[in-house]
Specification:
The chain has helices at 5-13, 72-77, 91-120, 125-136, 141-153, 170-178, 181-187, 193-201, and strands at residues 29-37, 55-61, 67-70, 83-84, 87-88. The protein has 209 residues and is an alpha+beta fold. It folds into two domains: 5-81, no CATH class; 108-201, no CATH class. The strands form two sheets. A three-stranded antiparallel β-sheet has the order 1-2-3. Strands 4-5 form a two-stranded antiparallel ribbon. A hairpin with a 2-residue loop joins strand 4 and strand 5. The longest helix has 30 residues, at 91-120. The protein is elongated, with a radius of gyration of 21 Å.
Length: 209
């Protein structure tokens, strides 16, 4: 019989803690600042045993020095300590910090994919796109199309939704307006909900599912 959620958590954390019951044991644990991007959602939380995690966050017990690799939601759910410059953060600030770290891992994965792409083919657009992305943390619509198209063609592992598209400037909006529909569909996963609405107001249609 599969153990219940509370039982799994207790089984995984109590033997590595001084306290012999919950929630007291949670007070001994804190986030270590160490993270791992496994590049695919293939890992498991060592606390609650949730599967299909892409990102791991390390927690350590200050009394036993035991560590666990967990999902960010467990850190928040069980109110494990998260610090910033020696100060314990509130639940709200802890959530913001973990979200920033997750966003950084996503950004790093985009840069890594772009670097592999630029090395894979001698397209002069790609180094410029990489430079632009490093500087702005997003791509113009034209850059986004070329990057996502060539990543797909070269079968380079990436998550299209991690690439953000710049649409604040009128020039970039015009580029999106003038794009063939096939190119708009290529960058569609990278567009926010509001940007997709903008594209449809320009006369484009959403990809068929």
């Amino acid at each position: 019989m599969t153990a219940s959620y509370p039982a799994r958590v207790a089984t995984n954390i109590l033997p590595k803690s001084v306290a012999d019951k919950l929630p007291e044991a949670f007070e001994e644990w804190s986030f270590t600042e160490e993270t791992i991007d496994h590049e695919q959602a293939i890992e498991t939380c060592q606390l609650c045993e949730q599967e299909e995690l892409r990102y791991h966050f390390e927690i350590r017990n200050r009394l036993t020095s035991h560590t666990l690799w967990v999902g960010s939601q467990c850190i928040l759910k069980f109110e494990l300590s998260v610090f910033e410059a020696g100060r314990k953060l509130s639940s709200t600030d802890a959530k913001r910090k973990l979200e920033r770290l997750t966003q950084k891992m996503r950004l790093d994965s985009c840069i890594s994919a772009l670097e592999r792409l630029a090395a894979a083919e001698p397209n002069p657009i790609l180094p410029n796109a990489l430079k632009y992305f490093r500087q702005h943390k997003r791509l113009t619509p034209k850059f986004a199309f070329v990057v996502l198209w060539r990543l797909r063609v070269n079968n380079i592992d990436h998550s299209p939704s991690f690439f953000k598209v710049e649409l604040k400037r009128d020039l970039h909006k015009q580029h999106l307006r003038d794009m063939p529909l096939s190119q708009v569909h290529e960058i569609w996963p990278a567009l926010t909900g509001a940007q997709r609405q903008t594209a449809m107001r320009m006369g484009h249609s959403a990809p068929k599912t």
